[in-house]
Amino acid sequence: MEFSDAKQKFIQSWGALGSQWGINKTMAQIHAFLMISPESVSMEEIMDELKISRGNASMNLRALIDWGIVYKDYKQGERREYFYAEKDLDEMAIKISRERTKREIKPALKVLKEVSSIPANKTTKEKHFKQQTTSLYKFVAKADNALEKITEYNDNWLGKLLKKLIT
Amino acid sequence: MEFSDAKQKFIQSWGALGSQWGINKTMAQIHAFLMISPESVSMEEIMDELKISRGNASMNLRALIDWGIVYKDYKQGERREYFYAEKDLDEMAIKISRERTKREIKPALKVLKEVSSIPANKTTKEKHFKQQTTSLYKFVAKADNALEKITEYNDNWLGKLLKKLIT
DNA sequence: TTGAATTTTCAAAAAAAAATGAAAGTTTAG
DNA sequence: CTAAACTTTCATTTTTTTTTGAAAATTCAA
């Protein structure tokens, strides 16, 4: 396979994967492009490479920065901003995990705690509801906990996790 | 909080969560409704409760069945089909994990293997591309492996994982 | 300051995804 | 078989999400 085909394929696939993960396609594509760029890259170049508008590039770059997986770079005597991706995969995965936890798991826990607190009496339906949402709360809380512990190591967490799993 | 409010809130929130995870809202809502239903439920009831069309209900129920987290139930002497959700949360999480792995991680690995196989020579860009996609491949493969190991226990995997993490 | 270079914002347009509903298909009791 | 009961399909419509692009805002060198 040619380099340019490989690059294209990688960017497209990363974009498609992003969509499945609730991240928009362009955001994932910009991320892919930055990951494979050895130097930091201007918005202009990104627009050009991905054939997207300035507004789109600007908004999605900001989102990536908010997620903490892309950084700005200022070059000596230049107005223009340059961007580069977090390239340490451990670090990247931890940041994504933390962000998703904050945005998705924490709010879910809040709701589960709330709805599982209804009085347990009355109908079978109510009892069952309380019971199910309570287990769900416990389960999600436990998972959240596990995730926190796993990424706590920071350095080479995935390797360490694997080691623990083997024994 | 009233039971009916709690139920509403749970279904709505589960639906919203689904969207963030690349699962469509209705599918997640049907799943939520089934999880809190003590008895298996007909399509009619689902349509009624969630205010959705027959076609929508039919398609999303099928998707849930494909994922292996909802089952059909046939009642003695009745034409109508009834549905119920997998209620064992360990089992449910394992099924979701397996399905997502199959649909997302495996194809991603295939692409990463492919694109990281370009010849390593020539420009810095090409070298960097090869290097990045190779690390990415290794990382994702490792994560896939860990996930497989974690869910391998089947019974109470989350509890067991947590125990391993503590030591 | 000023103004050119650059980025951000956001209303409108376009694209993508999801939902509808009626017709077609399937199943089974009689 | 037949027909009623029920489910599935899919072209069309609706809703949601994403993208565009031009105007407004910002930044900084001179």
From TrEMBL, chains A, B:
Pfam families assigned: HTH_5
Organismal lineage: Bacteria, Pseudomonadati, Bacteroidota, Flavobacteriia, Flavobacteriales
InterPro entries with a match to the protein in the record: ArsR-like_HTH, HTH-GbsR_regulator, HTH_ArsR_DNA-bd_dom, MJ1563, WH-like_DNA-bd_sf, WH_DNA-bd_sf
UniProtKB keywords: DNA-binding, Transcription, Transcription regulation
Protein name according to UniProt: HTH-type transcriptional regulator
Domain HTH arsR-type: 29-72
PANTHER family reported in the protein's UniProt record: HTH-TYPE TRANSCRIPTIONAL REGULATOR MJ1563-RELATED
Protein family according to the UniProt entry: Belongs to the GbsR family.
